[in-house]
From TrEMBL:
Species assigned in the record: Actinoplanes lutulentus
SUPFAM superfamilies, per database record: Bacterial luciferase-like
GO molecular function, one term: oxidoreductase activity, acting on paired donors, with incorporation or reduction of molecular oxygen
Xref: PANTHER family: CONSERVED PROTEIN, LUCIFERASE-LIKE MONOOXYGENASE
Protein name, UniProt field: Putative F420-dependent oxidoreductase
Domain annotation Luciferase-like: ranges: 20-124
Transmembrane segments: none
């Protein structure tokens, strides 16, 4: 990959803010020059209709699921959605798939076992349904899932990772696969308030073994995970500060091998409010 892409990852698009507000925000991001909008596929049986609504309401910007849970939707149904979206909007929809987390899956009564094998079987199902590898991307953290991303998809969409992980992911994927990490940021130059906002986000993720086990591979410890994260870990995960400092933090991921960075602007956990000002400012620096 040679093209450098700047994208958006924002829970707002699947919040209760409403379809019209979501489309208006997507149109502005498109006009600002962002490449793609990522947001969670939720935990329903099918791909959420909001992805199609945004595709239908915009002209150029890409839309990606970040992610559809392989425990909650069938390959056949997901393949139909993706094929229809690609037919009507060629080159604009990307299906992101992930194995989610045991605590979330088992809340629905599903037995969370062998997520790697589950993903392999799911990809087999997509193959059988005629959805090609280049139409999908995997939420990959560890070496095995990164290798699966390389071999059976267009690439990897890591979430809640550091630039060091981005470098490892690029090495695992090789030069020709898309690497599009999500990176959360806080546009706030005050260290105390910026880190407090970041910890509202990190605290929940640091209870999930998939993420903490991945961070342990890079030398982070239980002391770093306590209390929503040590200052050192928060600073490594969440670029914060002036817009220019945030942009420098995102640059570390590009330098580590990312083709695309999906920016999530943290705004105190208010998913129904779209941080338009921050995305306007960052677009002026990054795009």
């Amino acid at each position: 990959m040679t093209q450098r892409l700047v994208s958006v990852w924002q829970p707002f698009f699947l919040s209760k803010a409403g379809q019209d507000a979501a489309i208006d925000a997507a149109i502005e991001l498109e006009e600002l020059g962002y490449s793609r909008i990522w947001f969670s596929g939720g935990f329903g049986e099918n791909v959420h209709p909001r992805f199609r609504e945004i595709l239908d309401g915009t002209k150029r910007i890409g839309v990606a699921t970040g992610i559809v849970s392989i425990w909650h939707s069938s390959p056949a149904e997901v393949a139909v959605f993706a094929q229809d979206a690609q037919h009507d909007h060629p080159g604009r929809f990307l299906l992101g798939l992930g194995a989610s987390h045991a605590v979330l899956v088992e809340n629905d009564g599903t037995d969370y076992r062998k997520p790697y094998s589950k993903m392999v079987a799911y990809l087999d199902g997509l193959d059988a349904a005629g959805l090609p590898a280049e139409a999908r991307i995997l939420a990959a953290l560890g070496p095995r899932m990164l290798e699966l991303s390389r071999d059976r998809s267009t690439g990897a969409h890591p979430y809640f990772t550091t630039a060091e992980h981005t470098a490892e992911a690029r090495a695992a994927l090789g030069p020709d696969r898309l690497l599009a990490p999500e990176v959360a940021v806080v546009v706030d130059a005050n260290p105390e308030t910026a880190r407090a906002t970041a910890r509202q986000y990190t605290a929940g993720y640091l209870t999930l073994p998939n993420y903490t086990n991945n961070l342990r591979r890079f030398g982070w410890t239980d002391d770093d995970f306590a209390g929503g994260g040590s200052d050192r870990l928060v600073d490594a995960l969440i670029p914060w500060g002036t817009p220019e400092k945030v942009a420098a933090g995102l640059e570390k991921h590009y330098q580590a091998g990312a083709d695309e960075v999906a920016i999530q602007v943290l705004n105190g956990g208010d998913a129904r409010s779209f941080p338009a000002g921050a995305f306007r400012t960052l677009a002026g620096i990054l795009i």
